[in-house]
Automatic annotation (TrEMBL):
Keywords: Signal. This is SnoaL-like domain-containing protein. The keyword Cell membrane does not apply. Residues 1-23 form the signal peptide. Residues 42-167 form the SnoaL-like domain. It comes from Hymenobacter roseosalivarius DSM 11622. Gene3D superfamilies: 3.10.450.50.
Length: 176
């Protein structure tokens, strides 16, 4: 009886040791590349895009996106960034006299060769005054949010793989 009890305890101990070893090997590794420098590099890509929009000029912005990127905006599928820039963004920017961001915040998480970003911001668009208009149109003010997935390319540069943005008219602030 003592031999059976001892053998049972030995088997239990071996099983627990094996499970612990298996759990250690199955545990996910810490996110590779999740350093302040990598997060800063991702933020730099987002900032370059934001600066281009504020300059009303998409020149060179295609380098910030992968060739097979996908752009989603306010419920619409816009296609690749190249298509979006040529058929939507660039023509739209030509109608603006100014585009400014404010209250910008970004949360970035790097996980290996991918990064995930959530941006919140306000923006104001001033439209160009048309010759037939007696006065400029009122500025367009919106509260926006964007989520993006970036991928590090073979050259070690971060590029936007997918981005989705939406906006709404800001809610009035509650008084009292």
């Amino acid at each position: 009886m003592k031999k059976i009890l001892a053998l049972s305890l030995l088997v239990t101990a071996l099983e627990l040791t094996a499970r612990a070893a298996l759990a250690q090997t199955a545990a996910p590794a810490p996110a590779a590349g999740s350093t302040p420098a990598e997060e800063a590099a991702v933020r730099q890509v987002l900032t370059k895009y934001q600066q281009a929009v504020q300059k009303l000029d998409t020149t060179g912005t295609h380098r910030l996106f992968t060739a097979n990127s996908q752009v989603f905006e306010s419920g619409g599928v816009e296609g690749t960034y190249s298509h979006y820039a040529a058929h939507h963004l660039a023509p739209e920017l030509k109608e603006f006299s100014a585009f400014t961001f404010s209250d910008y915040k970004a949360a970035v998480q790097v996980d290996g060769p991918y990064a995930f970003a959530t941006e919140t911001y306000n923006y104001t668009i001033n439209l160009k005054k048309a010759p037939q208009d007696k006065e400029a149109k009122a500025p367009i003010v919106r509260r926006g949010v964007a989520t993006s997935v970036l991928r590090k390319n073979a050259a070690g540069q971060w590029q936007i793989l997918s981005t989705h943005s939406s906006a709404r008219t800001p809610r009035p602030k509650k008084q009292g």
